[in-house]
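Write out this protein's structure.
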Amino acid sequence: MSQPNRAEDPYSVLVPSGIVVLEGAVGIMEPYDTVDPKNKVVTRELLQEVSEVEAGTFSLVANSIDMDILGMPASALINELTDLSKTRRESSKGVLFGQLIVRSVFNEERAALVALKPFKTAKEAAHEFSLGRYFKGAGKSHGFRTFEPLGIARLENGKFGLLTSYDHGVRSLDNEVWNPANALNSIAVSRAIGKAALVIASMHASGWTHGDAQIKNIFASNHQELFIADIESTQPFKQKHGNPVIPEIERSIEHDIRALAMSLPNGRGREVVPDELLDMFSTFYTTIIRNPKSEVPEELRKSSKYFMQLMQSQY
């Protein structure tokens, strides 16, 4: 039996705190990189695989996680590694982090670090899976990405879980903003709020709203790559007959800005974010959404000051 490469995986030496068995092995989905959720979030092909996940008859697409396993998987489990959640702060709640181990009928074994986010239904998991596949490719051109979705697993408790890759060196921005060791006028906090502005503005400029744009759902890597997470509520700008529905888009943008503002320090448990940081956020945000290539309707680009006043009003 081949073993996971311990030398390349420093987390494999951690002692698991628990084991989660995935029923029917694990359904790793085909990479639908051409899916455009703006037109149809869950494709017919993906729904077919979702039904197989629900029935427990799905198979493993091994090359999705470079496992190179021959034959059908005989078993799959996740060794929970709680230390992996330390860089995720509030965003780690309800999510299991660990080492996915898949063993084939030929007794071949492979491992990969993953995050498992629970959903009540396989279709809900498939919705976020499809969005994740879309942003994995399209997001890079917009200045952000998301964690690579690997597949959907059926859990012992009857729920379903979305499997995503675990990226080393990626931290949620609430680690900086809510860290009591960082003064709110520190460089670390200033950079975090600036990155949050870049991500939210980039999403809006590319025609999307996040739906839960809290600071905990925005991440940065050691290489300054920006990520979004918890995208099950993410939606494209509402259109009717090919034209933007301005009131709906305005409400969606307002919702994102309110969610972000309310997730920043506001005097409850920590002092208020300094005005100069809110001004910096405003400058970054308005610069991006006023770009001529922005998909934010022109009427709303002119209202960007209003959106920033809305943010500051949360304080």
